[in-house]
Amino acid sequence: MSMPLTSRFAAAGLACALMAGCAAPSHPDSRDPWEGFNRGVYNFNDTVDHLMIRPVATLYSTVVPDPVQSCVHNIFSNLGDVWGGINLMLQERGLDAFNMWGRFMLNTTMGLGGCLDIASRTGDPKIPSDFGTTLGVWGLHQGPYLVLPLLGPSSVRDGVGITADWFGNPLALNNIHNVGLRNSLYGLTFVDKRASLLGATNTIDQTALDPYSFVRDAYLQRRAAMVRGNKPNTDALPNYNDEDETAPPAAPSPSAAPAAPAK
Amino acid sequence: MLSLFPNLLKRLLCAAALACVAVAAQAQTAKPDPNGPPDQLVLIVANQALTALKAGGSTQESDIARINKVVDQYVLPYIDFEKTTRLAAGRYWRQATPQQRTDLARAFRGTLIRTYSGALTRVDPSTKISLLPKRSNDVQGDDAVVRTTITASTNAQPVEVDYRLGKGPQGWQIYDLNVEAVWLIQNYRNQFAQQIEQSGIDGLIKALNARNSGN
User: Fold this and answer.
1) Is there a contact between A26 and B198 if contact means CB atoms under 8 Å apart?
2) pLDDT tens column, A190-207
3) Chain-chain contact of A117 with B137 (C-beta, under 8 angstroms)
4) C-alpha distances in angstroms, A226 versus A32, A129, A155, B151?
5) Less Cβ crowding at N or C end of chain B, within 10 Å?
6) Are B177 and B162 in contact (CB under 8 A)?
């Protein structure tokens, strides 16, 4: 999309946030000091998503045959592997970087322009990476969590990263000079991305108590894991401090169990 | 180029189908053993569920009743819902009465079933699960992590799913899972705390039950 459109949406998001009144959060999280504003943008995104984006993505995933969908998805993903590899190199993950470039070469040739992800099948799965992750590896903290209009969950650091991805990626769509083609491809990437997230967002709708904090916590967990990379690190497993290990187990009283078993 | 494509696809589909038959044969002979190695337990349980699902054809969003049945029969016996709930509640678990603990675990169970089932709405004949290479620190005493990848369909990119298991009187049981580096319990801790601070533990139980009956 063109810049004026983005900024118009940004302005709309801001207006929404102001209308929502920046209510004080009930359970403040130190990683999310701008929660009131973020919730406003989140609600705006959610509304636009339900009204326009999700219906289009659902139509796409219903009408377009699965092999075509995965082909489109893999082609875009394949184009991203070169920039992903450059970032892995910047993160001093040389072996992973060469794996990504190897993937790109194999999938572009044998995989018919990236349509078939041959590399994943031969045991060389994609290692997603971007400049936000690189900044994280270089020691930059996330900074405050930030929900971007239309783009969704991010942070101050990752927002900078997105800008660098935009200009740095040698195979980004903005290198295409034919405006019509470029804009059609933008549309297709957007729909493809949204369609690939349909399963996740449906699950969140059905299971989250508070979708906003579900998405935020998932985003921050995932980004932390991407920065951590594949270092052999035992701390990578969450330590939940199981306080009940020593306490006597809760004795369920069989006589008083009125609630129907959840099915 | 174009004439090559269907042939290649056909050959790939054939290979995938053969792999599935092999997996199905293995799943039918092996029985889950909670006292055996945790990675084999996860693999066998998952394969049994996949085989049962595939027997009824590819799954879709609308098949949720059938999926729930399979999850109920093949997966639930190996999940420790009480532990998942206890860890998600964190320090609030201590404040809960025994009755509240039972009710909370039962309410959250409904949410978890829908989470596990939701992951199975896109199973097709080529869906497969494979174990990732073991790491030296995967099993530590009574706690273990099993790393797997799930490939939903022939040309889909594999998704990493890890399971956390604890060993108790009933052998190994799953209590947490991780999809693409997002751990489930960690993702519910804030939501639980938020709801409890707003309306107490009873409020949380009510909110969970409301979501359960809403679907």
Assistant:
1) yes
2) 999 999 999 889 888 888
3) no
4) 19, 7, 14, 21
5) N
6) yes
Measured between CB atoms, which of A73, A203, A262 is closest to B106? A262
Residue from B43, B46, B35 nearest B142 by CA: B35
Taking chain A (263 residues) in consecutive chunks of 10 residues, what is each chunk's mean pLDDT? 49 49 71 96 97 96 93 96 97 96 96 94 91 96 96 96 93 91 95 92 89 96 91 70 56 40 40
Closest Cβ opposite residue A262 in set B107, B124, B188: B107
Q: Choose among A136, A134, A139, A142: nearest CA to A90.
A: A134
B137's tokens = 């620190």
Taking an 8 Å cut-off on Cβ atoms, the answer to whether B110 and A257 are in contact is no
Element housing B147 (H / E): strand B143-151
Q: Which residues contact A115 (CB under 8 A, 6 or more apart)?
A: A71, A74, A75
Nearest-neighbour CA in chain B from A68: distance (Å): 10
Write down the pTM of the prediction.
Answer: 0.83
Verify whether the Cβ–Cβ distance B114 to A203 is below 8 Å. yes
For residue B118, the one-letter residue type is: G
Token pair belonging to B186 = 């960690």
In this prediction, the answer to ipTM > 0.90 reads no
* Chain B residues within 8 A of A217 when measuring between CB atoms: 186-187, 189-191
Distances from the Cα of B184 to the Cα of A10, A204, A234, B31, B101, angstroms: 32, 12, 18, 27, 19
Q: How big is the CA angle at B33 (ends B30 and B34), to the nearest 5 degrees?
A: 155
Q: Where are the beta strands (DSSP E) in chain A?
A: 145-148, 152-155
Q: Do B86 and A203 touch (CB under 8 A)?
A: no
